[in-house]
Write a structure and sequence with these properties.
By secondary structure, the protein is mainly α. It has one domain. It has six helices and no strands. 18% of the residues are buried. The mean pLDDT is 76.
Length: 127
Amino acid sequence: MLPRMTRRSRFVALFSLAFGLAIPFFAVWAVPHAGTCVLKGTLGVPCPGCGLGHSLLAVQAGHWLEACQAYPPLLALFLLYALGLLILMWRGAGRPSPQLLSRSVPWVGSGTAATVVVHWAMVMATR
């Protein structure tokens, strides 16, 4: 029998999952409404997610090459999420345990953050 998740591990798992899912949806919503990045418009510095909204809109339209040109780490992010889902399905045998979720979801979230920050650092270094 598996031990129950603690309140803290449940919160971390749900927060990581919600944050990881909210960013792409917000980016898709914000692009038609804002037009440009607020940070780039005010400070002239691109934010870590610059191009993500345009990239997700291009994926939605089926233009994968245009999507990867707008935001190069998009493919890495898709692969990271796919790998996370495969691990959950493989290790959880169809229904992942709370322990597996509390261990794997933060890793996927951390990998996402690391991918975005490394891309942003490379963009800032070449400015």
